[in-house]
Design brief:
The protein is built from 5 helices and 5 strands. The chain is α+β, with helices and mostly antiparallel strands. The chain binds protoporphyrin IX containing FE. Belongs to the cytochrome b5 family.
């Protein structure tokens, strides 16, 4: 009897641990993620970034960092608004009131380098 109670308590503990540590969400699990690039290891000029300005090839700049969000365009909950400044500085739109804090975690997956000063 005591053993059964201990076993169920351990089971409950493990299940709770699993629930709170899992990271994937419904939205992010569908997105193919690029290979992680170490921060600062690459840099692009503004004119290089500006070539990637379409739905099928979309880079954006947020706070002097460059993100290839091509694979995220179709997943973006805000629809085509993410394309408003495709190939350009999207910092203002990104920090707009429509965005909750989870966008800061999501954008990291799309980082490809910094903007050349
Ligand atoms: C990688 C960059 C971006 C990510 C990861 C992202 C992510 C998201 C997410 C998760 C939402 C749903 C609301 C929330 O949970 O916070 C959202 C909504 C929205 N986003 Fe973005 N976003 C990005 C870039 C942008 C940019 C650059 C703009 C505008 C220029 C924009 C405009 C909007 C708008 C207008 C909504 C509101 C949609 C609505 O409420 O109907 N987003 N975005």
């Amino acid at each position: 009897m005591v053993l059964a109670i201990i076993a169920s308590l351990v089971g409950l503990f493990v299940a709770t641990l699993f629930f709170f540590t899992r990271k994937e969400t419904k939205e992010t699990s569908k997105i193919s993620k690029p290979v992680t690039i170490a921060k600062g290891s690459r840099a692009y000029t503004e004119s290089e970034v500006s070539l990637h300005n379409s739905r099928k090839d979309c880079w954006i700049i947020v706070k002097d960092q460059v993100y290839d969000v091509t694979s995220y365009v179709e997943e973006h909950p805000g629809g085509d608004s993410i394309l408003k400044n495709a190939g350009r500085d999207s910092t203002e739109g990104f920090f707009g009131p429509q965005h909750g804090t989870r966008v800061f975690d999501i954008i990291d997956d799309f980082y490809i380098g910094d903007l050349k000063p």
